[in-house]
Design brief:
The structure holds two protein chains of two kinds. Chain A is mostly beta strands. In chain A, 4% of the residues lie in helices and 47% in strands. Classes of the chains: A mainly beta, B mainly alpha.
């Protein structure tokens, strides 16, 4: 079942697509769509601390493991990506970004 | 967790807790500064001294940069609560790398003081990594 949800972007790693403070409508319960931004759960960091839910672009299946997904930031200067943490399992791709709902003025 | 009735923050940050931080970056640049001071003491060639001056200023600036990254990006409020001298350490260390410190002079003992401050910061850094 498709379930909508609202999220707020925090940080700069999805610039220029999404800015800090943007409110996004996301859809859970759908298959990952390569090329689109998604809400993902990154693996814990090297000290075992959980990372926050993140917004990343799913670029495509992992070439070495077709059931896993490769994620990237839009801003090449910032963000944790699959180049840092490897590809993500399908269950770590929580929702697809459907649209920008609201952007802070200014 | 994700809901239409409550807005969840999703991170698009670069300085996630996984960021790779290590005071060794600042230390290595400070060691360069110290080495430059030693080499200049043994060399009267004016061209060499000019180059050494320029490189020493650049390396000192890099020390400040690496320290500031640790200060602002790695260390978090709970760390400053636990180590109340941390702000002062960073302030003193970056001053020692500044114009009144290694950037402005060729005094090897100042470079040693800078290295000692970085070592103090490094000790705290690695203690926070254990926690």
């Amino acid at each position: 079942m498709i379930r909508p949800a609202l999220v707020r972007v925090r940080g700069r790693s999805m610039l220029p697509t999404y800015r800090d403070g943007d409110i996004l409508l996301v859809l859970r319960g759908v298959r990952p769509r390569p090329g689109r931004a998604h809400v993902v759960r990154l693996p814990p960091d090297t000290s075992g601390r959980p990372r926050p839910l993140s917004v990343k672009r799913v670029t495509g299946p992992d070439p070495d493991a077709a059931e896993r997904w490769w994620v990237d930031s839009d801003n090449p200067a910032e963000g944790v990506t699959s180049f840092d943490v490897g590809s993500l399992p399908a269950e770590a791709i929580l929702a697809v970004v459907a649209r920008l709902v609201w952007r802070p003025l200014g | 967790m994700l809901s239409l009735f409550r807005i969840t923050d999703v991170s698009a940050h670069c300085d996630l807790p996984c960021g790779v931080y290590d005071p060794a970056q600042a230390r290595i640049e400070a060691e360069s500064v110290k080495m430059i001071c030693q080499k200049v003491a043994d060399n009267d060639d004016p061209d060499f001294r000019v180059r050494a001056t320029i490189i020493k200023e650049q390396r000192s600036e890099l020390v400040k940069h690496h320290l500031w990254v640790l200060w602002t990006d790695y260390f978090k409020p709970p760390h400053f609560e636990k180590y109340p001298n941390l702000h002062t350490l960073f302030n003193e260390a970056t001053k020692l790398a500044g114009a009144s410190g290694t950037k402005g002079e060729f005094d090897e003992s100042v470079a040693d003081q800078l290295l000692a401050k970085i070592e103090e910061i490094s000790t705290i850094f690695w203690e926070t990594k254990k926690g």
